[in-house]
TrEMBL record:
Gene Ontology MF terms in the entry: FMN binding; riboflavin reductase (NADPH) activity
Organism: Streptomyces luteolifulvus
Protein name according to UniProt: Flavin reductase family protein
Keywords: Oxidoreductase
Gene3D superfamilies xref list: Electron Transport, Fmn-binding Protein, Chain A
Residues of the Flavin reductase like domain: 22-166
Biological processes, Gene Ontology terms: pyrimidine nucleobase catabolic process
Length: 169
């Protein structure tokens, strides 16, 4: 059965319209980390995008009001971690304002370029930041991959309808 879009009563653009539409868009879940002046910082992101294979580039967005933004704004390198479905609690911790994101039970180590690298993720990358593009109250960060490991076990964590979910077959 096909549903025809209702073109007779479209909604005007608004933050609520955008949020409502993107709640219907399933997205992979990543945690972005950086080393700041006060220690490691990080946040949960669903905006991760592959930009180019040659050279290997990616992008993500971050709100300029985020507690992680000052460190990401100054960092030469960031960590990008693809979370597994077993890491819903970790995703929630890095999404929660005011949380002790790097305290127990979060397991991590200092990785290449001094970037915090989380343990037990599906895959991780360390990237060199090459640009920060203004976009409303966010910045789109462009970064070039310099190190990484794609070999973690498990299945990806998804974000859909305001919740973290596992992938179903």
């Amino acid at each position: 059965m096909t549903a025809t879009p209702d073109l007779a009563t479209p909604q005007l653009a608004s933050p609520d319209l955008l949020r409502s539409v993107f709640r219907r868009h399933a997205a992979g879940v990543a945690v972005i980390t950086a080393h700041g002046d006060g220690g490691p910082v990080g946040f949960t992101a669903t905006s991760l995008t592959s930009v180019s294979a040659e050279p290997p580039l990616l992008s993500f967005s971050i709100g300029t009001g985020s507690s992680s933004w000052p460190a990401v704004a100054e960092s030469d390198h960031v960590g990008v971690h693809i979370l597994g479905e077993h890491q819903q609690d970790l995703a929630a911790t890095f999404a929660r304002s005011g949380a002790d994101r790097f305290g127990a039970p979060t397991a991590w180590r200092e990785g290449p370029e001094g970037v915090p690298v989380l343990d037990d993720v599906l895959a991780w990358l360390v990237c060199r930041v090459i640009g920060r593009v203004p976009a409303g109250n966010h910045r789109i960060v462009l970064a070039e991959v310099v190190h990484g490991d794609p070999a973690g076990p498990g299945r990806p964590l998804l974000y859909h309808q305001g919740r973290f979910n596992g992938l179903r077959d």
